[in-house]
């Protein structure tokens, strides 16, 4: 299995509504090796809808830029009732050994 450096872009979404969250970790532009455990944390941005009004979320791994993101793989399905920090692992077999892969 190869170790891949990946640029992590995360998106939390809900089935009907997108929550306006602000991620506090990892920070934009963070780079991780495949199979690394990553702490993901967020806070309510203050814009509607409120996290308190939401139930579930999905976290995905993206590559590329904000202007041209590419969804690579789902990482976690969760419930907002379990708090605002989770640990995810980027599978070692996704991405490539190039920047933004």
Descriptive notes:
The protein has 101 residues and is mostly beta strands. It has one domain (5-89). Helices cover 0% and strands 49% of the residues. It is built from no helices and 8 strands. It has strands spanning 5-7, 9-13, 21-25, 31-33, 37-44, 56-64, 69-79, 85-89. The chain has a 3-stranded antiparallel sheet, with no helix packed on it. Strands 3-5-8 form a 3-stranded antiparallel sheet, with no helix packed on it. Strand 6 (56-64) and strand 7 (69-79) form a beta hairpin. Residues 1-17 have low confidence and may be disordered.
Cα-based radius of gyration, to the nearest Å: 14 Å
- How many individual domains? 1
Number of helices: 0
Number of strands: 8
Order of strands in the sheet with most strands: 2-6-7
- Main sheet specs: 3 strands, antiparallel
Give a short summary of the structure:
This protein has 101 residues and is mainly beta.
Q: Topology, pairings included?
A:
Blueprint lengths: L4 E3 L1 E5 L7 E5 L5 E3 L3 E8 L11 E9 L4 E11 L5 E5 L12
Descriptive keywords:
101 residues; mainly beta; 3-stranded antiparallel β-sheet; 8 strands; disordered N terminus
